[in-house]
Q: What sequence folds into this?
């Protein structure tokens, strides 16, 4: 969805008659990348589904307050990331659950005749889960979603230098984990 | 860029599986929940506003009750204190009056007056008490008295 489409969708969402239609268009355009971002952070599909819904419910409620100073996708990522952070605060044991799910999936993959790269993929996820919260979010946004540091800065309210440092430390820790565990 | 060469051997693919048909249904489902929640939040908002108005009115009524209640109590207390004062004064006055009356009554006991019973004076007794000169004067007056009948003389 380009900037013109985004602007049109928001115009539709501000019109009570076209609000629902605009919402569906916006959600259809962004649900998959936003879901993937959430899923990588919380791991559990059920939690990811709940957070995805909360994210777009917030979009539905607060579409009028959206300022077109930033891009829509950064706004969506920001809401989704905030919802994930809330989830982490509410469920202190979420990380144990996430590690358990990843280990189970890794076990299933290694037991089958799958490519070795699938096993490495899960090890890579386990390495990401060991990271501190901020580094994990920055790494996911940069590595998987391929967002610029400027966009990540808007999403997380951080400076580019801080984000670069976070990413650097995160990638170093992941490399070390892979060396130790693969 | 150094970052681009990192983790090249690892595919940028999420290893987590998504249930079949999940993305087809999620948009409509989320919209339904969003509409329902907005409807509920409106209801809650109306309820909250109603409650706030009711609470404000109750607070005002309660405040007014307490203010007038205090005034009434003050007036009642004032009336009661005044009544007590008046009652005390009346009681004291009565007590004083009683004391005075009893004392006065005691003081002013009826004096027993003894009336001496005297016998009516007789002319002979009166004449006997008169001296000779007085008798002479009396005789002279009798003769010259205009109001005494001459036939009696």
A:
């Amino acid at each position: 969805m380009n900037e013109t489409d985004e602007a049109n969708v928001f115009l539709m969402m501000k019109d009570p008659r076209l609000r629902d239609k605009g919402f569906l268009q916006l959600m259809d355009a962004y649900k998959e990348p936003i879901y993937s971002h959430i899923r990588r952070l919380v791991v559990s599909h059920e939690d990811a589904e709940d957070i995805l819904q909360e994210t777009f419910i917030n979009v539905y409620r607060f579409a009028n307050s959206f300022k077109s100073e930033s891009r829509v996708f950064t706004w969506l990522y920001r809401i989704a990331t905030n919802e994930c952070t809330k989830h982490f605060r509410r469920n202190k044991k979420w990380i144990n659950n996430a590690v358990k799910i990843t280990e189970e999936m890794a076990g299933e993959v290694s037991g089958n005749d799958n490519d070795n790269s699938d096993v490495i993929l899960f090890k890579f996820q386990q390495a990401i889960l060991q990271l501190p919260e901020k580094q994990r979010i920055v790494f996911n946004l940069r590595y998987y979603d391929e967002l610029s540091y400027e966009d990540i800065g808007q999403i997380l309210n951080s400076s580019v230098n801080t984000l670069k440092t976070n990413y650097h430390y995160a990638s170093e820790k992941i490399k070390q984990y892979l060396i130790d565990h693969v | 860029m150094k970052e681009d060469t990192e983790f090249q051997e690892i595919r940028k693919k999420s290893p987590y599986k998504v249930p079949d048909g999940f993305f087809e249904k999620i948009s409509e489902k989320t919209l339904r929940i969003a509409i329902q929640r907005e409807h509920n939040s409106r209801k809650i908002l109306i309820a909250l506003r109603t409650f706030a108005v009711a609470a404000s009115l109750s607070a005002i009524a309660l405040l007014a009750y307490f203010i007038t209640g205090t005034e009434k109590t003050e007036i009642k207390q004032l009336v009661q204190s005044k009544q007590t004062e008046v009652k005390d004064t009346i009681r004291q006055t009565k007590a004083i009056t009683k004391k005075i009356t009893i004392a006065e009554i005691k003081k002013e006991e009826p004096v027993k007056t003894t009336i001496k019973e005297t016998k009516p004076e007789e002319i002979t007794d009166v004449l006997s008490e008169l001296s000779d000169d007085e008798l002479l004067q009396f005789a002279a007056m009798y003769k010259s008295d205009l109001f005494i009948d001459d036939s009696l003389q």
